[in-house]
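ESCALATION

Customer reports they have been waiting on this structure for their group meeting. Please prioritize. Original submission:
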Amino acid sequence: PVQVLRETKNLFENRFARHQITVSDELGDPLIALKGDSDRLMQLFSNLFENALRYADSPGALRIWQKREKDWIMLFLEDSGPGVPEASVDRLFDRLYRVDPARTRARGGSGLGLSICKKIVEAHGGRIKAENITSGGLRFQIALPLFST
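Update from on-call: job pushed to the front of the queue and completed.
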């Protein structure tokens, strides 16, 4: 998953630069393995990057890192903000949910991207959550089970 995340990030480099979003890649070992579908994982990470491009203030920052906990890989994507209203955090992964209902598809998406992210993570036996952070941004945490022989 780390290798797929890094490859996906590389595909977005020019767009991040155009939006003046500095990406801090603090990912470690790319050789961590899990049983999964690399195309769906790329879709997951692409949706999260699209979300950062759409909603993070410009200039801004996106920090990505990982940590290993027993039989899990934890992946984190944290933007510089703004976050979302606290009442919306638990609904971000609901199908068709938009934080600002006044947003049109042209300005704010369809409300499907994060719902798709959740389905992809769950199909891999994992979990995803979002939370506002004290610096004012939004953090996504993805937990995926590691491959065991």
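Sent to customer with the following note: The two ends are 17 Å apart (CA to CA).
Escalation resolved.
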